[in-house]
Amino acid sequence: MDKFLAFPSSEIAILIEKLKPETPGLWGTMTAQHMLEHLLLPLEFSRGLFSVPLVTPADKVEKVKRIMLMSEAPLKRDFAAPFLGPGLQPLKFETFTKAQEALIKEVEVYIEFWEANPEANFTHPIFGPLNKEEWYLFQRKHFTHHFSQFGLVEF
Fold it and tell me: Which pLDDT value is given to residue 3?
């Protein structure tokens, strides 16, 4: 898993700060601000702020987790998160800078939460219930995926 960004690391905040509002995506329809706000969602539901329904059939969860999450495989480009619905989501923050600040802060809160609650377990909509290590792995892959989408890292 060395090819994915370290998560958590100080590099995450540095890369978030390098991103510019006008940075185009290399694929997909998200703007830079949409991507920042999109990364917030799984950080929030991975610590139980809200729940998302499991969309993978229960009998397929372990196989999907093994193939997509626990492997060296990157996340697929243009994969539409089934729980979000079609198209771009409305922006939550009035400025790009506020979205950057919110994501940097949420990464810090996420780390604090998992340090205080290492036995927690929350459901991912595709991979089912995940523990701390599995959520960290998902975040590594998810951040790498979207940071490469905007040219912040090569993958």
Answer: 85
Dist CA 66 CA 59 (whole Å): 13
Is residue 4 one of the residues assigned to a domain?
no
What pLDDT is attached to residue 1?
57
**For residue 71, which of 146, 1, 7 has the smallest C-alpha distance?**
1
Residues 29/150, Cβ–Cβ less than 8 Å? no
CATH number of the domain enclosing 99: 1.20.120
pLDDT of residue 30: 95
Domain residues for the domain of 66 are 10-78+88-149
Is 25 part of any domain? yes
- Closest C-alpha among 49, 37, 35, 20 to residue 92: 37
pLDDT value at residue 85: 73
Give the three-class secondary structure for 143. Answer: helix
Give the count of domains, the chain.
Answer: 1
- In the chain, which stretches have pLDDT less than 50? none
Tokens of 115: 């340090």
